[in-house]
Amino acid sequence: MATAKKKAPAKRKAATRKKAAPRKAAARKAPAKKAVARKAPAKKKAAAKKAPARKAATRKAAAKTPVQKAQASLRQSWDDAMDQIGKMTDSAKLKAKQLAAKEKVLERRAELAAKAELDKAKHLADQAEKWMKARARADQKKVAALEKKLMKQLRDAERKLVAQAKAAEKKAEKKARAVKKKLEAKARQITRKPAARRKAAAPKKTPAKTKAKTKATSRKKS
Protein backbone atom coordinates (compact mmCIF):
# COMPACT_ATOMS: atom_id res chain seq x y z
CA MET A 1 0.00 0.00 0.00
CA ALA A 2 2.83 2.34 0.80
CA THR A 3 4.47 1.78 -2.56
CA ALA A 4 1.19 2.40 -4.40
CA LYS A 5 0.76 5.69 -2.58
CA LYS A 6 4.32 6.73 -3.51
CA LYS A 7 3.85 5.90 -7.24
CA ALA A 8 0.63 7.91 -7.59
CA PRO A 9 2.24 11.38 -7.30
CA ALA A 10 4.92 10.40 -9.87
CA LYS A 11 2.23 9.42 -12.40
CA ARG A 12 0.43 12.71 -11.83
CA LYS A 13 3.62 14.66 -12.45
CA ALA A 14 4.29 12.80 -15.71
CA ALA A 15 0.74 13.47 -16.90
CA THR A 16 1.02 17.16 -16.12
CA ARG A 17 4.35 17.32 -17.99
CA LYS A 18 2.82 15.71 -21.09
CA LYS A 19 -0.06 18.18 -21.01
CA ALA A 20 2.30 21.15 -20.59
CA ALA A 21 4.65 20.11 -23.49
CA PRO A 22 2.29 21.14 -26.36
CA ARG A 23 1.67 24.46 -24.67
CA LYS A 24 5.38 25.16 -24.39
CA ALA A 25 5.94 24.24 -28.05
CA ALA A 26 3.11 26.55 -29.09
CA ALA A 27 4.59 29.30 -26.96
CA ARG A 28 7.94 28.85 -28.69
CA LYS A 29 6.41 28.97 -32.20
CA ALA A 30 4.33 32.05 -31.42
CA PRO A 31 7.14 34.60 -31.99
CA ALA A 32 7.94 33.06 -35.41
CA LYS A 33 4.30 33.29 -36.45
CA LYS A 34 4.21 36.90 -35.31
CA ALA A 35 7.30 37.69 -37.40
CA VAL A 36 5.70 36.10 -40.49
CA ALA A 37 2.56 38.11 -39.86
CA ARG A 38 4.64 41.26 -39.64
CA LYS A 39 6.45 40.49 -42.96
CA ALA A 40 3.24 39.86 -44.88
CA PRO A 41 2.07 43.53 -44.85
CA ALA A 42 5.55 44.61 -46.00
CA LYS A 43 5.35 42.27 -49.02
CA LYS A 44 1.92 43.60 -49.84
CA LYS A 45 3.22 47.18 -49.66
CA ALA A 46 6.17 46.36 -51.98
CA ALA A 47 3.82 44.74 -54.51
CA ALA A 48 1.57 47.78 -54.33
CA LYS A 49 4.56 50.05 -55.03
CA LYS A 50 5.71 47.95 -58.05
CA ALA A 51 2.27 47.80 -59.61
CA PRO A 52 2.25 51.44 -60.89
CA ALA A 53 5.70 50.95 -62.48
CA ARG A 54 4.49 47.85 -64.29
CA LYS A 55 1.41 49.66 -65.48
CA ALA A 56 3.57 52.53 -66.75
CA ALA A 57 5.82 50.11 -68.62
CA THR A 58 2.81 48.48 -70.27
CA ARG A 59 1.48 51.92 -71.21
CA LYS A 60 4.85 52.92 -72.71
CA ALA A 61 5.02 49.69 -74.67
CA ALA A 62 1.54 50.36 -76.02
CA ALA A 63 2.44 53.98 -76.82
CA LYS A 64 5.55 53.01 -78.95
CA THR A 65 5.43 54.14 -82.57
CA PRO A 66 6.33 51.85 -85.52
CA VAL A 67 9.69 53.64 -85.83
CA GLN A 68 10.50 52.90 -82.23
CA LYS A 69 9.42 49.32 -82.76
CA ALA A 70 11.68 49.10 -85.79
CA GLN A 71 14.55 50.62 -83.84
CA ALA A 72 13.89 48.21 -81.02
CA SER A 73 13.87 45.27 -83.43
CA LEU A 74 17.10 46.55 -85.02
CA ARG A 75 18.65 46.89 -81.62
CA GLN A 76 17.47 43.41 -80.76
CA SER A 77 18.84 42.00 -84.01
CA TRP A 78 22.07 43.92 -83.41
CA ASP A 79 22.29 42.52 -79.92
CA ASP A 80 21.56 39.05 -81.26
CA ALA A 81 24.23 39.47 -83.93
CA MET A 82 26.73 40.70 -81.37
CA ASP A 83 25.83 37.78 -79.15
CA GLN A 84 26.41 35.44 -82.08
CA ILE A 85 29.69 37.18 -82.89
CA GLY A 86 30.68 36.93 -79.27
CA LYS A 87 29.75 33.28 -79.25
CA MET A 88 31.65 32.79 -82.51
CA THR A 89 34.68 34.60 -81.14
CA ASP A 90 34.42 32.60 -77.96
CA SER A 91 34.17 29.39 -79.98
CA ALA A 92 37.07 30.55 -82.18
CA LYS A 93 39.12 31.31 -79.09
CA LEU A 94 38.16 27.96 -77.67
CA LYS A 95 39.12 26.23 -80.91
CA ALA A 96 42.38 28.18 -80.98
CA LYS A 97 43.08 27.11 -77.43
CA GLN A 98 42.20 23.54 -78.31
CA LEU A 99 44.50 23.65 -81.34
CA ALA A 100 47.27 25.18 -79.24
CA ALA A 101 46.80 22.47 -76.65
CA LYS A 102 46.88 19.79 -79.36
CA GLU A 103 50.02 21.35 -80.84
CA LYS A 104 51.64 21.35 -77.42
CA VAL A 105 50.68 17.73 -76.93
CA LEU A 106 52.05 16.82 -80.38
CA GLU A 107 55.25 18.78 -79.74
CA ARG A 108 55.69 17.09 -76.38
CA ARG A 109 54.99 13.71 -77.94
CA ALA A 110 57.55 14.40 -80.69
CA GLU A 111 60.11 15.55 -78.10
CA LEU A 112 59.52 12.42 -76.04
CA ALA A 113 59.75 10.24 -79.16
CA ALA A 114 63.03 11.89 -80.17
CA LYS A 115 64.35 11.53 -76.64
CA ALA A 116 63.25 7.90 -76.61
CA GLU A 117 65.11 7.31 -79.88
CA LEU A 118 68.23 8.97 -78.47
CA ASP A 119 67.97 6.94 -75.27
CA LYS A 120 67.41 3.82 -77.34
CA ALA A 121 70.45 4.57 -79.50
CA LYS A 122 72.52 5.29 -76.41
CA HIS A 123 71.30 2.12 -74.73
CA LEU A 124 72.02 0.12 -77.86
CA ALA A 125 75.46 1.71 -78.11
CA ASP A 126 76.17 0.85 -74.49
CA GLN A 127 74.91 -2.67 -75.01
CA ALA A 128 76.94 -2.97 -78.21
CA GLU A 129 80.04 -1.73 -76.41
CA LYS A 130 79.48 -4.20 -73.58
CA TRP A 131 78.84 -6.96 -76.10
CA MET A 132 81.99 -6.06 -78.03
CA LYS A 133 84.05 -6.12 -74.85
CA ALA A 134 82.59 -9.46 -73.84
CA ARG A 135 83.11 -10.79 -77.36
CA ALA A 136 86.70 -9.53 -77.38
CA ARG A 137 87.36 -11.28 -74.07
CA ALA A 138 85.80 -14.49 -75.37
CA ASP A 139 87.79 -14.26 -78.62
CA GLN A 140 90.97 -13.61 -76.65
CA LYS A 141 90.31 -16.72 -74.58
CA LYS A 142 89.70 -18.74 -77.75
CA VAL A 143 92.88 -17.40 -79.36
CA ALA A 144 94.88 -18.13 -76.20
CA ALA A 145 93.49 -21.67 -76.11
CA LEU A 146 94.36 -22.15 -79.79
CA GLU A 147 97.87 -20.78 -79.24
CA LYS A 148 98.32 -23.13 -76.29
CA LYS A 149 97.12 -26.06 -78.36
CA LEU A 150 99.37 -25.17 -81.29
CA MET A 151 102.38 -24.67 -79.02
CA LYS A 152 101.73 -28.09 -77.48
CA GLN A 153 101.49 -29.61 -80.94
CA LEU A 154 104.74 -27.88 -81.96
CA ARG A 155 106.49 -29.09 -78.82
CA ASP A 156 105.22 -32.61 -79.42
CA ALA A 157 106.35 -32.46 -83.06
CA GLU A 158 109.73 -31.09 -82.01
CA ARG A 159 110.14 -33.85 -79.45
CA LYS A 160 109.12 -36.41 -82.04
CA LEU A 161 111.63 -35.02 -84.54
CA VAL A 162 114.36 -35.00 -81.91
CA ALA A 163 113.51 -38.58 -81.00
CA GLN A 164 113.48 -39.57 -84.66
CA ALA A 165 116.82 -37.81 -85.22
CA LYS A 166 118.34 -39.55 -82.24
CA ALA A 167 116.98 -42.89 -83.44
CA ALA A 168 118.33 -42.25 -86.95
CA GLU A 169 121.67 -41.21 -85.50
CA LYS A 170 121.83 -44.37 -83.40
CA LYS A 171 120.82 -46.44 -86.41
CA ALA A 172 123.48 -44.77 -88.56
CA GLU A 173 126.07 -45.28 -85.89
CA LYS A 174 125.05 -48.91 -85.64
CA LYS A 175 125.28 -49.32 -89.41
CA ALA A 176 128.62 -47.55 -89.44
CA ARG A 177 129.90 -49.83 -86.74
CA ALA A 178 128.60 -52.84 -88.66
CA VAL A 179 130.25 -51.63 -91.89
CA LYS A 180 133.43 -50.91 -90.02
CA LYS A 181 133.38 -54.39 -88.54
CA LYS A 182 132.79 -55.88 -91.99
CA LEU A 183 135.63 -53.87 -93.49
CA GLU A 184 137.91 -54.79 -90.68
CA ALA A 185 136.95 -58.44 -91.10
CA LYS A 186 137.59 -58.26 -94.84
CA ALA A 187 140.90 -56.53 -94.26
CA ARG A 188 141.89 -59.23 -91.83
CA GLN A 189 140.82 -61.87 -94.33
CA ILE A 190 142.86 -60.20 -97.08
CA THR A 191 145.91 -59.96 -94.91
CA ARG A 192 145.55 -63.59 -93.77
CA LYS A 193 145.26 -65.14 -97.33
CA PRO A 194 148.72 -64.16 -98.75
CA ALA A 195 150.47 -65.41 -95.63
CA ALA A 196 148.67 -68.74 -95.90
CA ARG A 197 149.51 -69.00 -99.59
CA ARG A 198 153.13 -68.24 -98.91
CA LYS A 199 153.25 -70.83 -96.21
CA ALA A 200 151.64 -73.39 -98.53
CA ALA A 201 153.99 -72.64 -101.51
CA ALA A 202 157.28 -72.65 -99.56
CA PRO A 203 157.87 -76.48 -99.38
CA LYS A 204 157.55 -76.99 -103.18
CA LYS A 205 160.53 -74.82 -104.07
CA THR A 206 163.95 -76.28 -103.05
CA PRO A 207 167.38 -74.65 -103.52
CA ALA A 208 168.74 -77.58 -105.63
CA LYS A 209 165.95 -77.42 -108.09
CA THR A 210 166.31 -73.74 -108.40
CA LYS A 211 170.01 -74.08 -109.03
CA ALA A 212 169.42 -76.75 -111.69
CA LYS A 213 166.94 -74.56 -113.39
CA THR A 214 169.35 -71.69 -113.42
CA LYS A 215 172.06 -73.84 -114.91
CA ALA A 216 169.79 -75.16 -117.60
CA THR A 217 168.74 -71.75 -118.56
CA SER A 218 172.34 -70.59 -118.74
CA ARG A 219 173.26 -73.47 -121.00
CA LYS A 220 170.47 -72.78 -123.39
CA LYS A 221 171.53 -69.19 -123.64
CA SER A 222 175.13 -70.18 -124.46
Structure in words:
- With 222 residues, this protein is an all-alpha fold.
- The protein has three helices and no strands.
- It has helices at 2-63, 66-201, 207-221.
- It starts with a helix and ends with a helix.
- The relative contact order is 0.02.
- As residue ranges, the low-confidence spans are 1-7
Average residue-wise pLDDT: 75
Number of distinct beta strands = 0
Quote the distance from N terminus to C terminus: 226 Å
Count of separate DSSP helical elements = 3
Q: Which strand-content bin applies to the residues?
A: under 5%
Structural class: mainly alpha
Largest sheet: none
Overall geometry: elongated
Radius of gyration based on Cα positions: 77 Å
**Order of helical and strand elements:** HHH
Properties at a glance:
single chain; 222 residues; mainly alpha; 96% helix; disordered N terminus
Write a brief structural summary.
With 222 residues, the protein is an all-alpha fold. Helix content is 96%, strand content 0%. The protein is elongated and about 195 Å long.
List the helices and strands and how they pair.
Blueprint: H1 2-63, H2 66-201, H3 207-221
